[in-house]
Amino acid sequence: MTSAAFDLVLRNAVLATASDTYRADLGVRHGRIAQIGLDLPAGRQEIDVGGRVVTPGGIDAHCHLDQPMAPPVRLADDFLTGTRSAACGGTTTIIPFAAQQKGATLQAAIDDYHRRAHGKACVDYGFHLILTDPTPAVLDDELPRLIAAGYTSFKLYMTYESLRLSDRQILDVLDAVRRHGGMPMIHAENADCIAWLTERLEAAGRLAPRFHGWSRPALVEREGAHRAIAMAELVDVPVLLVHISGGQAVDQIREARAAGLNINAETCPQYLFLTAEDLGIDDSYHGARCVCSPPPRDAASQQQIWQGLADGLFQVFSSDHSPFNLHGEDGKTPGGAEVAFRHIPNGIPGIETRMPLLYSEGVLGGRISLNKFVELTSTGPARAYGLYPRKGTLAVGADADLVVWDERDFVLDNAHLHHAVDYTPYAGRRLRAWPGLTLLRGQVVWDGQTFTGTPGGGQFLPRGLPSLFPIGARAPGHRTWLQAALAS
Ligand code: DUC
Ligand code: ZN
Ligand code: ZN
């Protein structure tokens, strides 16, 4: 008896990577892509995909799962429900956040989040670290050790009282990253402007959810982005600005790139598909369902974000899945009450809808190419966060993380989704595509109807250093401001 050449062959596929689209069969052995070609020999399992598009599994590089909150508020998704939802929407790798508690080590955060993910995660995962307490011990001792152990990205907040760093602390973190490598991710909003506006709105009795948007105008993000870029320039490190919401911040990034700086950027579905009107056109509490930060903007901003996706401004398209229930006491009505906008938990669900929304409106809507879709949802995040080429592409030796796309029209309803959240902000939207199959390392985890993955079947991914192509090119012999000052 001859043994099959492959564990699995996907036949008659249109394979799409960030650079190419072509017809081929794809053979999988031991969870990895073993061969791509025409008329491959038989596999033990055969799937004829009938000419459908096959892309690399999605990488959602910005999502929040099981992150501790002040009771009674809690995130609705843990690592089981969140990764189940991810798989059903075509995402096979996630990078959620492990948040350092002030006064505690980074290692304690990592240990905690490994416990949370263990036995539950149904797709592969790594962890970004949220740095809230960058002491010398953390920066000089822990950080290099953790980078070597595969935790190579760090989120820094300029806002949120419990999380924010001062500019001085941000400079210290950027300097440590310059010495040891890694990717700083910056949440860029001006905290004092937000606090000042919030106090004045509250004093005037403007408490409804829609004032969340009024309290965080685009200029607050523009200023934060400008300051983050200036600090990155001073220290001379690449950074990645997360969840960019509109044109003013986009302009800051364009200007920085034109000056040769290595500034990377991420955006999210809420900045393409929601506007400030979704926070409410009157004082109804319904808008609480779309409260997130930065807030959704206007139609002109949506167009600038689409433009940035199409022309290479953005490297990463993530969900910022931060799931709170609309009803009950643990979510958008904390303790069961309608509260002033400043107390509404920030965040919306989106881990499952991220890829189908962009495929439907971006690819099938003619706004971005199929290859750009792959770059934004998979290859770019893999490069930015040290997963490439094991993840993020269709190539021999890469993990066989695959999405087979069904193109069909339907109206989205929360009942279609597999998260543990009681709503989706995209209910009622017409979609034109959804994954017909998702495979994680060669195993079907979503068959188009049913989740078929395994809790605990996801593997932890230690990550390498970023491998994005440098965007800005510094002149040879370039010196930082500090080096020039010391040499003067
Ligand atoms: N904003 C964030 O920065 N993170 C989670 C959700 C949100 O709205
Ligand atoms: Zn953020
Ligand atoms: Zn976030």
Automatic annotation (TrEMBL):
Question: Could you tell me which residues carry N6-carboxylysine?
Answer: 155
What this protein is called in its record is Dihydropyrimidinase
Q: Which GO terms describe its molecular function?
A: hydrolase activity, acting on carbon-nitrogen (but not peptide) bonds; metal ion binding
Q: Does the keyword Hydrolase apply?
A: yes
So what family is this one in?
Belongs to the metallo-dependent hydrolases superfamily. Hydantoinase/dihydropyrimidinase family.
Species annotation? Bordetella genomosp. 7
Required co-factor? Zn(2+)
Kindly give the Gene3D superfamilies that the UniProt entry links to this protein.
Answer: Metal-dependent hydrolases, Urease, subunit C, domain 1
Q: PANTHER family, per this entry?
A: COLLAPSIN RESPONSE MEDIATOR PROTEIN, HYDRANTOINASE/DIHYDROPYRIMIDINASE FAMILY MEMBER
Show where the Amidohydrolase-related domain sits: 53-413
Post-translational modification summary for this protein? Carbamylation allows a single lysine to coordinate two divalent metal cations.
Give the signal peptide range.
none
Task: Name the InterPro entries for this protein.
Answer: Amidohydro-rel, Hydantoinase/dihydroPyrase, Metal-dep_hydrolase_composite, Metal_Hydrolase, Metallo-dep_Hydrolases_sf
User: What are the record's GO terms for cellular component?
Assistant: cytoplasm
Give yes or no: UniProt keyword Transferase. Answer: no
**Record key words, sorted:** Hydrolase, Metal-binding
